[in-house]
Design a protein that fits this description.
The structure is a homotetramer.
Chain A lengths: L16 H9 L12 H14 L4 E5 L2 H10 L6 E6 L3 H4 L4 H6 L2 E5 L8 H4 L13 E8 L10 H13 L3 E6 L2 H14 L6 H7 L8 E4 L10 E5 L2 H4 L2 H7 L8 H11 L3 H21 L5 E2 L7 E5 L4 H9 L2 E4 L4 E5 L6 H21 L1
Parallel strand pairs in A: 2-3, 2-4, 4-5, 5-6
Antiparallel strand pairs in A: 1-7, 6-7, 8-9, 9-11, 10-11
Helix pairs in contact in A: 1-12, 2-12, 3-11, 8-9, 8-13, 13-15
């Protein structure tokens, strides 16, 4: 029997079996804890090598921890972090950024999940006004919370604007692998293929970002993310911030070993390509069903689709997807690294049935 | 070749192979994330069953996260947490309790790592004085940071005193399994053997504590601890506090599966018994070497020993132990669940050699 | 020569001379500090008597301090405070609520500065969702940041809704005296005159609010505000929260003495009536000038007016008013307790001149 | 009838009448709020001129606010502030430093209230250890909480040591005027008289400190303190930190006017000299009574005296002094700027009577 698949989130999926195997393969040696061991060192190097430039790599437990601990090194409590209103830091981290970092989040309303310099600019008007938190950081999500991609050019425009305006740039890369996979596929389709690392760099480090939360749990790990500093000034106090944010693991090699396997043979890219391909297939299938409207381009591994009145709760019940926007009958369907075309096709088929049933019962 | 063993900390050891195996054994099914899955549910029940009484169980990543998230539900920022000066929360959590919880820690100087009601009482003198943080919590470590045990009676005296004085009681049980193992062995030796769970309950829940940080990583897990609330009022906001403290894991079943295996066939107790036995053997061995003074009773898995002048750095270099007190030439040797008598004996032998060498060179 | 008057803010005005005199009149006796003195006690009683019901009164330095210290007793860091997007706590307190209180502010966009139950309701949808701050407090401003008034009925509707939904209600009353004055005048004009205290109670305590930041500095004091708890459970830890928020004054009688004079002979109401009357006169005058649009009802002491293109910076320069909304050429003109009709008339006259000049130059 | 005098604290005294008069003398003009007015500007300059060197001056409400807001610019939450265990920031600020600043206070036990480099040095041992808050600031109190003075040389030794060890130096100068007065008198007595400002500089800025909390409320103001930055890097974010710490006053000129009068004709020094003289007289008087032991040199305006068994509560009752150390029967008697020799003498007389009564009753 094949394993059950849900569409609730890409963290509903299991860890990749080879990543789990890497844990079994670890020796039973003792090692100095908190990262001072050869496995962790190798994993840090492996992550750094992905980016082909000077950077510092630190492992943490989870995405919220990565974001909050990184942002604490970027913004003082009287400063502000600018982000899309739907950003994970603003919507889904239980208020950890404010409560632990102290700073204020300035969320910008923009339905495609992205930001442009002209969105950000008005928020700089209160620079120097002592009654307002002072904007210090621009935090972007790549790919965004609604499955869209910042192209390298869009990203570069933002980092240029940010740096010209004394903002540093944080990227929440909970799905950075999916961004790289999207770019990899786009370049392939354009007849200008690039390597896995080049694709990753194009949608992150090459654009001049300062800090990246390098996600991995959603794309095949059991637990563990990395924070990558391209700006070494910001990295200086990070070890202490990580510890204080409760994100320092003692038996660190159990994160390192996962990353080593994740990066070997581009497993990270293969996983992300599979997830993206599933989303593309799903979006294409749904787009052909009358009454379904794929509301946002399925550029990564999420599909945001408006469904016929009354069907959202049914889909939620059957496929464990989220109702993203109740008023618009929009549901979110997330595809994981272990996406299977038969499961996707069955979902499409079921969606078609459901709309047909409505027709009959009306 | 046998695996290398260090004495730096009990988190230098690897995870127990059966615990690692439990991760490989997990199905590849998708599950709703953040703990709403059957593996996590079973693990929560298994932990609760250990204590034989009503309690609520929550999994987190690590000990600092367990302590800080729990204490946030026990003390407001203008309140205070009373603890031994050497408590992990006071010495080794990077200031997370203060920075995240806001409250003040009131550390009491007492070299055996423990506290008694008469140590605590003077700190209640400023109750009601609006310029001082108001004592709200008594936080004890079982077994303590210096390897000593609170007997059930000592613990009960403290909880009675605390509750009579409007303090709730938190126990940092990073080594609670070692405490249970100590009590288990003592009862066995006294001819009044008890079950594994009875031993655990005697040194924790039976004494009327409110909240326990139930450690497991130091005793055989890859990562993961539990917070157990015996006081349901304090538990009410905990889910939100856990999330905000960045301690909510998405793929929670990978913690749950470890706990299930850890609790099966009393693996937790076996591990702790082995570690404790190693410490006892080590302490006995060292006690017989002239110039070595076992400074504190080795009641659990740590040995604190004063060594001849000049040897502390040598031992640190060779065995990766900590120099606990430079002025007293005291080192800390921690024994893990995978303790081996040959390694312990070799350490003792080496200590004897070193002191003999000193004799020769002088 | 008459004193200069500005329209930047009602805190640009001086303290009322009789309030200053009250400080000179204080005896040179020593008194126990931090509020344990007869002047403070009398002032606390005087404030409490205004409301004619059980309440607890505490003095603090300023409005930000009043709001933040009060809200800390109403919301835990993982909870949220719902307010209008333009609320002082959200826009003008330098991020103190988040940085000191930890909680998240959920700002609702509504241009009249007010809120209704139907505005608030959607924000309760994430109750119980552990990834989101949990709504705990509804914070209203009376009169609002844009010079509008909650009628007693509107306020009662909100408190009923809030309490039915497990929210407590905080009122930022930086301009509560102006609200009372508005109601007092409205009742007078309706032929159903009420007393000063009845007017105050109608727009605050009678509506079932839990906590009031009782402002006074903007209405004639040198410094000093009060926090009034109608909900005694919330008041319990307040003394400690006040101290920790750095808002406990040592020589407290110098706040108490101001309040005693401020409340004597309804000086507070007289001041507010004068300010409101100035705003009404100003709004009426501006409304008659072609090209000027009084954008919001001048129900208290602020006038928000859209001015002809290009004039906003001129008015800002000449009258020190704020440009409230650059896109709409809207300026804010605040009137103080010492409002003089000649000054208001000269402002209106000047506005008329300016628009005429534009006509000529075009 | 002469005003009543207490010995509870130097903030039990009233404001100096001339300081109060300065408030009455202020014009009734409107002024831009939050410090952008000529009175505040003049007061800032006047404070800066006291120190005869580049510095930046900011007014705040109270001492806790001054200390906390200043320290927030000096230490990140994962850093630590080193101080004497009895420091006001550690003992009397309701946990505001930790709760608002996040950082940890490392209190050193030393009964004379002072610190030396050799006291501080051991606390630097954990530099770089990621599990510990990193020492960043040395906070000294001048004069100390127990009435002792750092000589210019002692202070310079500390700042040299601190700067050589990457610590910046904060001075809590709640009683800095008393320190200056002590030095002024000592120099006078040594036949090498100095000016008021030279005396002040000798015990503060000349020693190379970075930031001073310049107290004034205890020495004659109604309210208001200043924070003086000699280190301009640290000052850069201060405006925002002050606002966020709820310490920004709107009608700022009411603080400025007090400071202008306080600094005119060296009123600040006269007040402090009077207080110190009172303490000296009191200490001398008590020293002659059998059974009384002046426990610490009365170098400023506080007298710490051990009294015969049983008398401490009597003195507390009659003179409102604090029992400083119950075990040692030590009381604290604080003398204010308005000290009168008749009141001091009566206190001495009464102490003599009390001890005589004991003799009789025993």
């Amino acid at each position: 029997m094949k394993p059950q698949q849900l569409f609730a989130s890409d963290n509903a999926s299991p860890a990749h079996p080879e990543v789990v195997q890497a844990l079994s393969d670890l020796s039973l040696d003792h090692h100095i804890s908190y990262g001072d061991d050869p496995v962790t060192a190798a994993a840090e190097t492996a992550v750094a090598n992905l980016f082909g430039r000077d950077c510092e790599v630190f492992f943490v437990y989870n995405g919220t921890g990565a974001n909050v601990s990184a942002l604490r090194c970027m913004a003082s409590p009287w400063e502000a972090v600018i982000c899309n209103e739907m950003a994970h830091i603003n919507e889904d981290e239980g208020g950890a950024p404010e409560a632990i970092g102290g700073f204020k989040l300035l969320g910008i309303h923009r339905p495609d999940g992205k930001l442009t310099p002209s969105d950000v600019k008005p928020l700089l008007a209160k620079r120097g006004f002592e009654h307002s938190n002072q904007p210090a950081v621009l935090s972007l999500t790549q790919t965004t919370e609604v499955g869209t991609l910042y192209t390298p050019e869009e990203l570069r425009d933002l980092t240029s604007f940010a740096h010209a305006n004394d903002l540093t740039v944080h990227v929440d890369g909970a799905r950075i692998a999916n961004a790289a996979a999207t770019w990899y596929r786009l370049q392939e389709e354009a007849g200008t293929p690039v390597s896995a690392t080049a694709a990753l760099q194009a949608v992150s480090s090459d654009a001049g970002i300062d800090v990246l939360s390098f996600g991995a749990t959603k794309n095949g790990l059991l637990f563990g993310e990395a924070v990558v500093f391209f700006n070494s000034d910001l990295a200086r106090p990070y070890r202490f911030a990580r510890k204080q944010t409760t994100q320092l693991h003692s038996k660190m090699r159990y994160i390192g070993a996962q990353f080593l396997r994740y990066l070997k043979n581009d497993l990270w890219l293969q996983n992300a390509l599979a997830a993206n391909e599933g989303a593309r297939r799903l979006a294409a299938g749904l787009a052909e069903i009358p009454g379904y409207n794929v509301a946002l381009p399925a550029e990564a591994n999420g599909v945001f689709v408006e469904v016929p009145e009354g069907l959202a709760p049914v889909l939620q019940e059957e496929f464990h997807c989220y109702i993203w926007n109740e008023h618009r009958n929009m549901v979110r369907l997330m595809i994981s690294w272990d996406s299977r075309s038969d499961v996707v096709d069955r979902l499409v088929e079921r969606c078609r049935e459901l709309v047909a049933n409505i027709g009959e019962t009306t």
